[in-house]
Amino acid sequence: MNMKRNGLLFIISAPSGAGKTSLFKKVIEKLGDIKASVSHTTRSPRPDERNGVDYHFIRQEEFQEKIKRGEFIEWAEVHGNLYGTSVENLKIIQDRGLDLILDIDIQGAEKIRKAYKDAICIFILPPSIEILEDRLKGRGSDSEKEIQKRLNRAKEEILHYKDYDYVIINADIDKAADELRSIIIAERCRVATAKNILSLVGGM
């Protein structure tokens, strides 16, 4: 008897430069039945980013129209750019039984938690502010003024780690990926997530 598993919603937040995107992409490659939600943003793509894969890059006017039509379950302004999570992306959980990872900032995470009480929230921390600064400078895509703005915001965001269920310090990406993968596997095995297990037992 095949039992369709309930999809789980994972929220991953981190200061800019903490490496969360590289981290969850590494995990998705090794785990099945999990998908990353692709957010919409008004910022310009970086050289290594692809439209529809890393983000849906859209114009400010188009983003505002989507807000008016109620197409975002959450949206926020971050570093002068707009970011939003579409309702359609979240339907993947119900429609296909997949787990979904949302890569969103602390503002968006708070809104999602209110709407989805069962969401599993994970915060990614850099080893130190100094290393975070080095990573931001290493991108080569931001001005010194932009880097300082991101660092100041990071110091504020880090204080919110206590609002999350799990914290991972991304000092070594392979170790951090193992920890994230372990969290996902453990959550899949929790009795609370297997709401339809009684139907399986009842059929035995």
Task: Give the helix/strand layout.
Elements: E1 9-13, H1 20-30, E2 34-36, E3 40-41, E4 56-57, H2 60-68, E5 72-78, E6 81-86, H3 87-96, E7 99-103, H4 106-115, E8 120-125, H5 129-139, H6 144-158, E9 166-169, H7 173-189, H8 197-202
Parallel strand pairs: 1-7, 1-8, 2-7, 3-4, 8-9
Antiparallel strand pairs: 3-6, 5-6
Structure description:
By secondary structure, the protein is α/β, with parallel strands linked by helices. It has a domain at 9-37 and 98-202: Rossmann fold. Helices cover 44% and strands 20% of the residues. It has eight helices and nine strands. It has a five-stranded parallel β-sheet, sandwiched between helices. Strands 4-3-6-5 form a four-stranded mixed β-sheet. Strand 5 (72-78) and strand 6 form a beta hairpin. The radius of gyration is 18 Å and the shape is globular. The mean pLDDT is 86.
